[in-house]
Design brief:
176 residues, alpha+beta, 10 strands, 26% strand
Length: 176
């Protein structure tokens, strides 16, 4: 790799998925891009310590016609459940097809039998009632506007959500 200096007046590295700067540059025709992989909505739920589960570096997951669910190891004996509902089904029913906190518990145990401890029913109800996030990745064929001396990196360029620090990782790769 060779390095070179590129003078820019503005470097945008944390403008996020719904970047106002990127949107304005795309609207004005300075950057061209298209959205991709935006076929799902998502929700996250942190589970309490799980005495029957060992921490591992692997991600446990399931995939159904409507959902993709993953259980990510976090902290000591703690896991985060992420549910991705395919956009085609996002409006038809609730996350995990659950209506009550007990439905959430049963669905989680169906997909992850070793999950035995759950958040309170109030937390589970809040999880059910909350609006899902939307994936909104964007790929641009250019990340710089030389005439304005603006360069986008990381989240501002590709609009990653924060799962596993992908936005930060892409910013470091872009900067490199």
């Amino acid at each position: 790799l060779t390095s070179r200096d590129i003078p820019y007046s503005l470097l945008v590295a944390a403008d996020g998925t719904r970047s106002a700067i990127r949107s304005r540059l795309v609207d004005q025709g300075y950057l061209t891009g298209q959205r991709y992989l935006s076929q799902s909505t998502w929700k996250a739920l942190q589970l309490p310590p799980q005495p029957n589960m060992k921490m591992s570096s692997s991600i446990m997951k399931y995939d159904t016609r409507k959902d993709l669910g993953v259980l990510l190891p976090r902290y000591k004996n703690r896991f985060v459940f992420l549910n991705f509902r395919k956009r085609k089904y996002a409006h038809t029913s609730r996350t995990l097809d659950a209506e009550t906190p007990n439905d959430v518990k049963q669905a989680l145990q169906q997909h992850f039998p070793d999950v035995t401890e759950f958040p309170s029913d109030d937390v589970l109800q809040s999880f059910l009632d909350s609006s899902p996030g939307e994936t909104g990745y964007m790929q641009l064929n250019r990340h710089c506007v030389p005439e304005f001396k603006v360069s986008l990196i990381g989240d501002a360029a590709v609009g990653m959500y924060s799962l596993l620090g992908q936005g930060c990782a892409s910013a470091l790769q872009n900067a490199n």
